[in-house]
Design brief:
Helix content is about 20%, strand content about 30%. The protein is of the alpha/beta class and about 400 residues long. It folds into 4 domains: about 5-20 and about 175-320, Molybdenum Cofactor Biosythetic Enzyme, Chain A (3-Layer(aba) Sandwich); about 30-40 and about 145-175, no CATH class; about 50-135, Molybdopterin biosynthesis moeA protein, domain 3, CATH 2.170.190; about 330-400, Beta-clip.
Amino acid sequence: MTGVKEAHDSIAVSVKELPAEEKALESVQGQVLAEEIAADFQLPHFDNAAMDGFAVQWEDIRNASEEKPVRLGVVEEITAGQSPRLPVASGSCAQIMTGAPMPEGADTVVIFEHTSGFGNRNVDVFKAPAPRSNVRYAGEEVRKGELLLKRGTRLTPAELGVLAAFGRSIVLVYRRPRVGIVTVGDELRRPGENLDGAAIYNSNRFSLESCAVAAGAEIAGHWQVPDDIAAIREALAEALLSSDLLITAGGMSTGEYDYMQQMLTGLGIEQKFWKVAQKPGKPFFFGTGNEGKMVFGLPGNPVSALVCFLEYCMPALSAMQNSRYYGKIEAELAGPFPTDKKRHRFLFGRIWQKDGRLLCKVTPKIESHMITSLAGANCLIEAPAAGQPLPAGTVVTCNVLPWGTMNE
């Protein structure tokens, strides 16, 4: 059997980076930058007001107080998007809104609340801020030519906002990996269909599709097929044509109807390994095909399938987009962890922060068929083979789920 580290190494050297493409800003959410983004101009462009109030010369109002307010003449009102028309001389000021350009001569903004208010030809200032207060100065955030975003950055709402702020309407990004999903089993029914006899609903399709999308991929298609050699071969051949990365679930063990491994190799997929020394997910297949195609054959048990996806497929999908996967952190066990004597063990659980410490604990249901153990989990906890359970207080590795939150 292949060890967990060896499985990771084998997958890592097989990953082929996807080509880059130019796309409109509104369609690149979750994709990865394939270029360095530098600032074409300074930010802010110009000195502007950080608060609603009055643009003044600080020397005029330095001694202002409730008892002795300073009266200034208002020369104009400046709103955001409007250029000042008149300078501010000593004894005068300009009514100004947040984001509006500072007029010539003014160096400070007195906030509205510390004045007699808007709408008059004169204003009384009751309190002086520190010199140069409430002003955003040109270039104080970003200098022209400064690096904004590195190649390999995944574009979240924050990065999209930065790109928009600098006027980038087209961006060079790595193409989304196309993921095909084939689920196998006579017993499988689609949600909404009636369950007859020993049938079960196909949960793997939906959890694996959701995981792939969370990794920045697009779904090339899904195929649900019975335990039939011809049907499996046809579905696999079709899925391989349309996918960069193919995921199968079911048919990977050693039973009489587990055809998946031989079907994949028969279609030209080179087997890199089959069976990993881990629990759950031992009957796990990985192979490669032409043009950098990758195939992950996952067990049919829902928990086992999800463990294999998070541990192996997620980093591979990130690497295909030239993005590093940062899911793993260390935390302290808040309860015992039931290790396996011979295999690396993965268990879903929760991780949270308390009193400056990261704590984690496995879910109560730990068997690989217990899909309800996934509900509420926010991490996958792992530990190497050991003869005894790990006690509370042991530091272990946790793979934080992309959709998880750290609320206790």
